Amino acid sequence: MSNEWGFADDRFPELRRAVQRLCADFPGPYWQKLDAAKAYPTDFVQAMTEAGFLAALIPEEYGGGGATIAEASAILEEINRSGANGGVCHAQMYTMGALVRHGSAEQKARWLPEIAAGHLRLQAFGVTEPTAGSDTTAIQTRAVRDSDEYIITGQKIWTSRAEHSDLLLLLARTTLADQVERRTHGLSLFLVDLHEATNTGLTIRPIETMLNHHTTELFFDGVRVPAANRIGDEGKGFRYILDGMNAERILIAAESVGDGRWFIEKAVDYANSRVVFGRPIGQNQGVQFPIANAYAHLRAADLMRWEACRLFDGGLPCGAEANLAKMLAADSAWDAANVCLQTHGGFGFATEYDVERKFREAKLYQIAPVSNNLVLAYVAQHVLGLTRSY
Ligand SMILES: Cc1cc2nc3c(=O)[nH]c(=O)nc-3n(C[C@H](O)[C@H](O)[C@H](O)COP(=O)(O)OP(=O)(O)OC[C@H]3O[C@@H](n4cnc5c(N)ncnc54)[C@H](O)[C@@H]3O)c2cc1C
Question: The whole model's pTM is what?
Answer without folding.
Answer: 0.97
